[in-house]
Amino acid sequence: MGDYDIKANSSIILSGRDRAPARAFYKAIGFTDEDLEKPIVGIANTWTETMPCNYNLRQLAVRVKEGVRKAGGTPMEFNTIAVSDGITMGTEGMKASLVSRELIADSMELMARGYMFDAMVTLVGCDKTLPAGAMALLRLNIPGLVKAIEDFACPGAGACGGQFTANTMAMALEFCGLAAMGMGGVPAEDPRKGDVGFRAGELIMDILRRGVRPRDIFSREAIENAIAGIATTGGSTNGVLHLMAMAREAGVALDIDDFDRISERTPLLGDMRPGGRYAAADLDRAGGTRLVAKRLVDGGYAQPRAMTVTGRTFGQEANEAQETPGQDVVRTLDKPLKRTGGLVILKGSLAPEGSVIKVAGYDKQVHTGPARVFESEEAAMGAVTSKKIQPGDVVVIRYEGPRGGPGMREMLGVTAAIVGEGLGETVALLTDGRFSGATRGFMVGHVAPEAAVGGPIAAVREGDEISIDIPNRRLDLHVPADEIERRLSDWQAPAHRYPSGVFGKYVASVSSASQGAVTVARL
User: Fold this and answer.
1) Largest CB tally within 10 Å, which of 5, 21, 304, 468?
2) C-alpha to C-alpha distances, 353 to 109, 153, 349, 515, nearest whole angstrom
3) Over the stretch 44-61, which tens digit does the pLDDT of each residue have?
């Protein structure tokens, strides 16, 4: 790595007599010859005025660019899209959320390939921009850094404050080494945030000079550390979907069963919302993500030798943890909240490829009951709010998967309504769609194969008995196998609601949730 050419990419587009026209375009907007002789660092900004999550990224980008310039590079900022889960939740707009992950990654990749950046920083702050930024860097495999933000529940700019999807992924990106440990945990409107941005700008130039690429860091050990971080803090089930997608981009083998194996051996230590008492800002005050990392290393639940983007190992970063005396956000190893982590993978006759349930925050282990079948989230919501769901029922919401939705909507509204009706302890729900990181209860998501491709969930009929068995990792439809086969032989796929446009393209190329719901080129 010592011989790494720090202008290997940009020199192709900027150097030499024949590239004078390209330099002239840049000079027209204020860049100088001196600027263009330096390494070019793309600043992929996901700022938008449509949500609080990424709202302050314009200001943060200014500080990141200052750091890049101070360290000898030339930053070039560009913007991409972002879709708010919180704003679109419970509507047709929510179908755009997971689709946006692919489009954000595509747009970042396209800009970097088109302008031939030497390195890139992705400034991200919400559920889909975080994994998308990482996916783009892993595709490009140029020196890169993910800069994430966290915050309180919504007092201003910043991501939602619990260990919901944004904060889950911010921690996961630090634990897998693609983001600098501790940088993402500083709340968005904290005065320290500007300094963190400046340091990120300096760091990307250090990464570039060392010639470190994302795939050098994103190893199997690094991924397992990220999974352990999610499991020990009761993080979002969306972490499964996003880490599967990132692993695919990096060419690292990862199976959905790996999440169950790692969660099973990892204790639940973080008392984090929605299953616990504390928010991300409380974790920051308690000692931050480094404290969680140190607990995992000390207990033998994480790989200390995994490298990080700073050039230091995971163990070295963890050893710098400074625990606030008396804090109880992160439990000690001898007093875990639970012996096992917050993620469980279920398989069975109803989910041959797998499904995901989050078990942090409650102790229920088994549920058996009659299926209440709904073809959409709206239909299920209507039944819950009109008090048609009874204790013991299993609510089945189908045709909400990657292809069927399309876009695999999160269903915070209907799960919250079940809890609000006083049914949180007595009713289960399963779906081929997803859940918000804020979801609580006996809720099984990502059921695969999905209904839209003829998965067993498409064969469920009203009143069929379904069982969810966490100890045995089973999700079963208690209907004879030959009857399920007969029902599916008579099944016909519904017409696509969006035969063209961005949703149509997505449906034509998206994979199963068990594979991360990534779009796949069919060459």
Assistant:
1) 468
2) 30, 35, 10, 9
3) 999 999 999 899 899 999
